[in-house]
Amino acid sequence: MAIVKKSTKAAAVNPLKMSQPLGASYAFLGMNRCMPVMHGSQGCTSFGLVLLVRHFREAIPLQTTAMNEVTSILGGQDNIEKAILNIRERAQPDLIAICSTGLTETKGDDVAGYLGVIRERHPELADTALVYVATPDYSDAFQDGWAKAVLAMIKALVKPAPQRNLKQVNVLAGCHLSPADIEELRDIIESFGLSAIVLPDVSGSLDGHMPDAFSPTTTGGTTLAEMAVMGASIATLAIGEQMRSCADEIERIAAVPSVLFERLTGLAANDLFLATLAQLSGVPVPAKQRRLRSQLQDAMLDGHFFFGGKKVALAAEPDLLYALAMWLAEMGCQIVSAITTTASPLLARLPLAEVLLGDLEDLELGAKGCDLMITHSHGRQAAARLQIPFHRAGLPMFDRLGAGHQLSVGYRGTRGLIFEIGNLFLAHPHEVDPGQWQLPEASLRAPEQMA
Predict the structure, then answer these.
(1) Would you give the end-to-end CA distance of the chain in angstroms?
(2) DSSP conformation class of 2
(3) Could you read off the pLDDT of 400-424 as tens digits, one per residue?
(4) How far is CA 124 from the centre of its chain?
(5) What dihedral angle (degrees, nearest 10) is formed by the CA atoms of 334, 340, 345, 350?
(6) How do residues 67-108 score in pLDDT, each as one tens digit?
(7) Is 266 left (phi over 0), alpha (psi -120 to 50) or beta?
(8) DSSP string of 400-420?
(9) pLDDT tens, 41-57?
(10) Cα maximum dimension of the chain
């Protein structure tokens, strides 16, 4: 059991934390034909836009209500109305999704009330869905903003269904899943004869494809039509603790039962996922997945010699931190330092004495003497100063290509992580006392559900 502490420093040094509005905007980018809007100053939107563009190396549709000194004091209703009407006229989106910022939250703008008035004034907006979520950037973090945005969309767009589609499941994807992760999960689910409605689906909008024509809105992602039939699914599969409240809300609205998977990195975690799919579909685990499981077992056997006893320092959003830390511990590593951004019930279960809600300076101090540092690209200088191997994980990742195609879930993704991080250890060997490590805790025998 880990003790969770919060940094008491007067200022963040090389911040790890990213804001709620950015997390919410990222979630909205997983919707098809959507225009995310930050209700705040132009600078707030510009900063988030640059970060997402550098990470994905794609054009990112993101708008602002462009609040200034006067409107910040008098209120932003006119700015919101002008923004919605301009976006409606020029981009013709199916969904305009608005998230607040610290500026407008401090003022106390009643955006939900504004939207009601705007709809009454402009009946031409009847064919455009409007969703608003309150995400002040002076509280919580990126993961919280993502979860709140998904919850707001569920409350606004999911409806009860008269009957069940026995071949359809909902997948609530946490912000720690890359487009490649979501593609992998969809392929796995479809191999059981099921269809998946993924919310939000960044694998459709941010997977690096070349569209046939220019679009001012997102191209690909979850459609409004798909959201309208989520209530007919036989189950909701929530990936990450951050999606718990969203799964509960779908169950409240449409009585769709849910299953939460805290992580999908590691052997045992994926055994449970596939066993659940087999139970829902009535289809045995496909031969392809059995083969991938066997390959993962072999990779674990090959790699545990190089993972055993290694000291690792990590910094990430809670769900990503938990997935990587628990998997590394299963591989025989010692988690020496864990830094995160916001509270989560998973943190207390991490395999170390203390977890700190802090910054990358805290990570650098905790990583002294470690064999590996894991965080996003802003940690690269700290790893260079400490002269230890560095693995990039999470967002932003702007100094490497292919961030959207980094895979870390499923048997295939876990196998790839073993090779990638194992090769870092191979390139930077050190002497290890054999008594410090042991075989991975995850069973190498197939569970009864896989038989």
Answers:
(1) 33
(2) P
(3) 999 999 999 999 999 999 999 999 9
(4) 35
(5) 0
(6) 998 888 888 899 999 999 999 999 999 999 999 999 999 989
(7) left
(8) SS-GGG---SHHHHHHHHHHH
(9) 998 899 899 999 999 99
(10) 73
